[in-house]
Amino acid sequence: MTDPAHHDDRPTLVIKVGGNDLDDATFVAKLARVVAAIRPLPVLVHGGGKEIGILQETLGSTPRFVGGLRYTDATALTAAEMVLCGSVSTRLVAALIAAGADALGISGVDRGLIRVVKQEHPAGDLGRVGRPTAVRSEVLRDLLDHGVIPVIAPIALGPDGPYNVNADEAAGAVAAALGVGEAVFVTNVPGVLVKGDVMRRLTRSEIERLIADGTISGGMIPKVRAALTALDAGVHAARITNLEGLLNQGTTIITEREPHE
User: Fold this and answer.
1) Are 90 and 136 in contact (CB under 8 A)?
2) What gap in Å lies between CA 83 and CA 77, rounded to an integer?
3) Residue 123 burial by CB count (10 A; 0-12/13-18/19+): exposed, middle or buried?
4) Is 5 helix (H, G, I), strand (E, B) or coil?
5) Closest Cα partner for 92 from 129, 53, 135, 43?
6) pTM value?
7) pLDDT tens digits for 134-162?
């Protein structure tokens, strides 16, 4: 347990972990051990991955996508709530406590933590998908000041009830609201590879160029897009790395090149 002194003047890491790794018990246990050891305490934001689609089908609905994004009808929202706020949140909190941390699962609905409006998309209606507009950072700071790691499920509160939120956008909004300099996206690779080497730092324009020339391809494209989404939410830098590099390695993506880099 950490000293519940106020940490407002110290940076807090916001870590986003995707859903596809969270049905792997070995990964979850390792993640929990790494996160439990981080000081100052971090905030964890998680996705739900394929578990949401599987449950949605079990509930009698067929997942569909608009412009590559999941359409969220009433059944899909129910599935997302059950997986994100239920099974995945419980799994992560249990693992963190087993690793010696104190942790609390919380969704964006709880205490009105994350407020959203309906997400508009040029490709069409996404259903009950929300875009974050406000985060009650004091709720998270209070937990952190009492030695508790917040584990955030990206279901948030809109003007007419709960909405599903892209976990990358939720992580970016939380990091921006906390004034955190960096959001870290944990994946299964050590960073963005160029000719076999991990790039330590890239700008938005460099990312776009590397996508255009095919250097960044396949599964890395959504990873760097997630980092750019965090920048759009107001975070100064977003880092892509694996568990081993969580503390200080990987690829940091910044809005523009800093002087004297």
Assistant:
1) no
2) 10
3) exposed
4) coil
5) 43
6) 0.90
7) 999 999 999 999 999 999 999 999 999 99
